[in-house]
Target: DNA mismatch repair protein MutT
Amino acid sequence: MTTPQKPVRAAGCVLWRRAASEAGLEIALVHRPKYDDWSHPKGKLKRGEDALVGAVREVAEETGMDCRPGAPLPTASYLANGRPKQVRYWAAEAVAGSFTPSDEVDRLAWLSPTDARARLTQERDRPLIDALLAALHLA
Model:
């Protein structure tokens, strides 16, 4: 009998800022050249790290933005390289900072909710935009 693998623990944010666009906000997506994908900023938690602390750290590392975390959003559970992975998400408003490309994240795009939904590579990331809009009472 095989023991179920413990899920990889990760956390991230649906990062947003106020804008003159649709719904009055823009959502940040990051491009990771290693996977050639567009996603919300997220990453693995360090051993013993609180999920919210890790989510804010990942946003800073991947986008250069300081953020103000808000409402929790749905947790994503899926297989990554054959291992179960759980990613906890929060809504987070970008409050300051600037993006610097790196080997991990080479591009940052600020998009309307409609454009962000279309650009996301993984279908599982799209409902997080609706959850953000609901949390901000914009849906």
